[in-house]
Every structure is written in C-alpha cells, then in structure tokens.
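From the pipeline queue, job 12 of 40. The input is one protein chain; the requested action is below.

Action: predict structure.
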Amino acid sequence: MTTLRQIRLAILIVIVGLVLSGVTAFPLLHEMNLLSSLIAGESRDPAAHEGFVKWILTVREGLEITYDKFPFIAYGTDWLAFAHLMIALFFILPWKDPVRYQGVLQMGVVMSLLVIPLAHICGPLRGIPFWWRMIDCSFGIFCLPPLWYALIKVKQLESKHNLDVP
C-alpha cells in the first residue's frame, strides 16, 4: 500500500468515527430506550439497579422527562451531532492533499487530547460518573492513533517529495 493510501485510510477511520458519532447523537432517546430494553428488560426504574445499568436507566429517564417537558433541549444535541459532521468535513482537506493540509491533522491531535481535560472538568460538574468520563475520554484516545500515524506518514511523504525535487 502506498504512503498516500495509508494516510487516507487513517484519515478515513477518523472521518467515519466522527460521522457515526454525529449521526447517533440525533436519536438519543430512541437509542437509550433500545439500550435500556436490552440491558434491563421491562424494568425501567433506575433505583432497582446498580452501576452501569442504573446509569443508563437514569440517563434514559432524564431524556424522556426532558424531551416530554422541554423538547427544545434536544436541539442542543442536534447541534452536537451537526458539529461532529462538520468536523468530519474538515478532514476531507488532508484526505485530498495531506501535505498541504497537515495542520488540520495537527489540530485533530490537539482536539483529541483536549477531550480528556474536558471530560474531567465538566464531567464532575454535571454529575457524570468517573467510569463514564473514561468512556468519553476514549473517543479522543481512539482518534489519536490514526491521526498521529497519518502525520508520521505525511512527514515521510513530504520528505520523499522533497528528495524528488531537483
């Protein structure tokens, strides 16, 4: 596989991850109802459970009550989803011309790292359990390797290109 294809594959992994994260942020209540059914069956009372199941049922209940009384709040997660999709679009530039747009990859690395302090600062303020904050951090951590790999390969491509120039 050529260096350019390796770079594009790494960037494609990031783009697909962002698109999936974005698309799945739209139907949150539907997804939480489905997940709740899978892990707790008909028992939807968070107080009857512990740990992960309790957390999922609490989030589902919170979404249900909020969407019922204040449906406009869901507009915030619509914008979250839209932001994921827009960020994914920015990675098309380095996918097309990775040497020219390697700054986008560098910013992607920085954004991936900034997920960690965000989760650890805002998470406790919002009552998010520690282990769930770790799941949130994993999104940045999983995005980091393909971006880093792409940057390494861009440097190789750049140096190879500079050697080819008389």
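Job complete. The CA atoms of residues 40 and 49 lie 9 Å apart.
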